[in-house]
Amino acid sequence: MRGTPVGPSHPLTPSPPHPLSSTPAIEVHDLTVAYRDSPVLWDVDLVVPPGVLMAVVGPNGAGKTTLIKAVLGLVTPVTGRVLVDGEPYSPRNQKVAYVPQRGTVDWDFPTTALDVVTMGTYGRLGWFRRPGKAERAAAADALARVGMAAFAGRQISQLSGGQQQRVFLARALVQDAPVYLMDEPFQGVDAVTEKAIVDILRELRTRGRTVLVVHHDLQTVPEYFDRVTLLNVRVVASGPVAEVFTPDNLRRTYGAAVRTA
Predict the structure, then answer these.
(1) Alpha-carbon distance 16 to 150, whole Å?
(2) Strand ranges (DSSP E) for 60-140?
(3) Counting Cβ atoms within 10 Å, is residue 222 exposed (0-12), middle (13-18) or buried (19+)?
(4) Structural contact between residues 166 and 193, judged by C-beta atoms closer than 8 angstroms
(5) Does 7 score more than 90 pLDDT?
(6) Contact at 8 Å (CB) between 5 and 91?
(7) pTM above threshold 0.90
(8) From the CB of residue 130, how many other CB atoms can be counted at a distance below 10 Å?
């Protein structure tokens, strides 16, 4: 499938909650990324503590998706470095699960919902082993957790936008990674799917996972997230929602008065 790197995978049942480490889940130091000599991210410093739900918000072209790609090593920075759990990211360390923007995926690819979710087990299996009964059972369980068990055999091209997003969320869940990166997971979904996604995010936080979400709806930031990063090429502010998500910081981010309620 285009644009969707197969990430790390999952022990066959979700791991229980674990004590939070003092090491940040994600550290970004002096990061600058440029496309055709035009900076998309400039001198970005960011620390994401373990076990939080953090939104990344900012105007179009602020570098939000690029930030996620930089964490995943999908873009080469001009300067700076990114650490995940204290070390450079590698797909081999199985520490990050990724939910891409739905619009970047080739939904005409001839495969079923269950097959897509089973792809989340590939990282643990390696190149030379094929998924077996245990992996497919884990994928079926992940589909059930997002309310998609009845669609396991359905071709992904036949699913609605909200259903497709749930399938990709299940694909990430089956990896059971310490860190989850999600790029606009609520975009174009219905209210029922949005609530289901929020419930899953909260479950992940309860289990000590860290979730970084590129988000566009300012009104739901205080309800859905405990921390927020305001980004417009540079980091304007980052921290607990109650401290950072202020009218002044939003004006500095968006350049004009914005409504959050």
Answers:
(1) 26
(2) 79-84, 96-99
(3) middle
(4) yes
(5) no
(6) yes
(7) no
(8) 9
